[in-house]
Amino acid sequence: MRKTKGKKYTLLFIFAALILVGCRSTKKEPSINVPGITLHQIQQMQALKPAAESFSAKVRISADISGKTLSSAGTLGVEQGKGIQLGVTVMGLFEVACFEINPSYIRLVNKAGKEYVSLNYSEVDFFERTGLNYNILQSLFLNKPFLPDGGDFAQNLESMNMSMEHEKILTMATPKKKFMQYLFSFDVSSGNLVRTKVIYNDTVYVECNYSDFTATDSGDMPESINITVEGLDKPLSLGLKLSNIKQNGYVYKESNVSTYTKLNIRNIQDILK
Predict the structure, then answer these.
(1) For the chain, domain boundaries
(2) How far apart are CA 110 and CA 255, in angstroms?
(3) Cβ pair 110, 268 in contact under 8 A
(4) In angstroms, what is the C-alpha Rg of the chain?
(5) pLDDT tens, 134-164?
(6) Alpha-carbon distances, residue 57 vs 72, 189, 234, 263 (angstroms)
(7) How far separated are the first and last CA of the chain, in Å rounded?
(8) Residue 272 neighbours by CB distance under 10 Å
(9) CA distances from 82 to 108, 128, 130, 167, 247 (A)
(10) Beta bridge partners of 75
(11) CA 3, CA 253: separation in Å to the nearest integer?
(12) Does 2.50.20.10 match the CATH number of domain 41-272?
């Protein structure tokens, strides 16, 4: 009799265990609101994988400020968490100016005239309004999606509003907070991030378009980056054509301005308001 009861309890235990295993194996993947693609497929996209710790490249710069154009050769260097440097060169040899971005400030150095201007993010109304900071600017240059609070983008996909364009471009929109929203568009076939938009009060303030991707050790990188900035007194567009990309060798180092003249920031602020 005891053996019969023991066998009965054993069978009940096995039956209960099978139910639990069955429930676990049929658990549905967290849902997303885009037909034809799963959350797992999105998580595996190239753009959501970690970027190289640093990279450098030669670059062809084209800028347009209120119809005034500038074209020059230069260099670009990015070290994650440390800084970004965009240098302007003459004849591809001598650096005459440098634009530096780091977690503490933004600095424009005129090496030819031995003068510079530094601005904290809080000193610029444009950055105060839009909430743009170093982490966001770094992500734009690294061609990576981001969350404004620095959280893990790939772990917060369920909070995104997603839509598909022509079954080719998947766009994810972050929840709107304090008039701010961020839109990221991905090429579904390649998994690359092809467009980022920073929206303030329903107006696109910053838009980055990426194209001409090339294979690198850490995944595809765009050789063309086109940035447009609205919301300033003078609209700005910046085109960067990268070549000779090298990864994980660049070290960010601030320019030595100890003998340079520090300019008054008001003229720069007038431009950026």
Answers:
(1) 41-272
(2) 10
(3) no
(4) 25
(5) 999 999 999 999 998 888 898 888 889 999 8
(6) 14, 26, 28, 29
(7) 88
(8) 19
(9) 17, 21, 22, 38, 15
(10) 58, 87
(11) 78
(12) yes
